[in-house]
Structures are given as C-alpha cells and as structure tokens.
Amino acid sequence: MTNKTIPFLSGIDHCHINVDNLPSAVVWFERVLGFKVIEELAFWDETGKGPLTLQDKNATTRLALFEGQVRSKGIAFAATGEQFIAWLTHFKAMDVKAVLADHGVTFSMYFKDESGNSHEITSHDYEYIKAFYPDVEQGSHSAKKV
C-alpha cells in the first residue's frame, strides 16, 4: 500500500485513560480541565468501571475513562500560544504542578492527573510563548517547574 492509497482520518475520536477511582477522576477532569460526562454515552459504563466518556468545553476532545491499576501513556492536548499561557496560569491557581519544556519549535507543559497519569499540553506558537519564558533553556532535559 502506498501513501496515495492510505485513507484519511478525520482526527482523534477519544483517548483511553486508566484511573484509580472513576468517580474521583471524573471530578478531577471536570474541576481542572473542564471536561463533562457525555450523558448520551454514559450507558456504556454498565459496571461502574468504565468506559465513561467525557468531553471538553469545545466538544473537540473526548476521553474514555476506565477504572484500573495500569497507568496510561497520557494525552498531548493542543493549544494556541495564548491558550498555553492561560493553562499555565490556571494550573498554578489549581495547585497542579506543571513542568515547562522548550523543544526549540514547540513548547510543552507536562502534568499529572489525580491517578498519576502523565499528560501534556503542547503549542506550536513557539515565539509567542518564548517571549513569556525567555529563561527556559531549549531541550527536554532542562525543563523548568512552573
């Protein structure tokens, strides 16, 4: 199969996240990231262990939460430069620890949810963010806690 014959995708429908406690995780994702349970899909959570599908305020990102002991690899959420700075401010107000990394062409912030899964918010508006954080050195190894 060549690249010309590979079908297109429409985007990401949802990401699976394993959590320690489903009700607690729902509260955390709502309080910190603004996600809400999609009521029309709540019937899938027949056993109380998931999947329970949540959606962000823009209805562009969905998460399927499952209660289980295995850690998830996490999600890299996309943000504009302005949104990125707003998220850093929001996390500080919510007392969510974030680590800021300058990747030379993008900036990322890394954080953990209440179950210990690592997540990322990344932005390609490099110059905009660099103006706010000129002292963050390039490279993941020099990431700075903010």
Textual characterization of the structure:
Helix content is 23%, strand content 26%. With 146 residues, it is α+β, with helices and mostly antiparallel strands. The strands form 2 sheets. It has a 5-stranded mixed beta sheet. A 4-stranded mixed beta sheet has the order 1-4-3-2, with helices on one face. The radius of gyration is 17 Å and the shape is globular. It is built from 3 helices and 9 strands; from the N terminus they run βαββββαβββαβ. Helix 2 packs across helix 3.
Features:
single chain, 146 residues, alpha+beta, five-stranded mixed β-sheet, four-stranded mixed β-sheet, 3 helices, 26% strand
Topology:
Layout: E1 15-19, H1 22-33, E2 36-37, E3 52-55, E4 62-67, E5 76-78, H2 81-94, E6 99-102, E7 107-112, E8 118-123, H3 126-132, E9 144-145
Parallel strand pairs: 1-4, 5-8
Antiparallel strand pairs: 2-3, 3-4, 6-7, 6-9, 7-8
Helix pairs in contact: 2-3
Q: What is the helix/strand order? A: EHEEEEHEEEHE
Strand order, sheet with most strands: 5-8-7-6-9
* End-to-end separation: 46 Å
Radius of gyration: 17 Å
Unreliable residue stretches: none
Mean residue pLDDT: 89
Q: Treating each run of at least 4 consecutive H or I residues as one helix, how many helices?
A: 3
Main sheet specs:
5 strands, mixed
Q: Write down the overall geometry.
A: globular
What is the helix content? 10-25%
Supply the helix-strand structural class. Answer: alpha+beta
Number of strands: 9
Strand content: 25-35%
Could you provide a short overview of the structure?
By secondary structure, this protein is of the alpha+beta class.
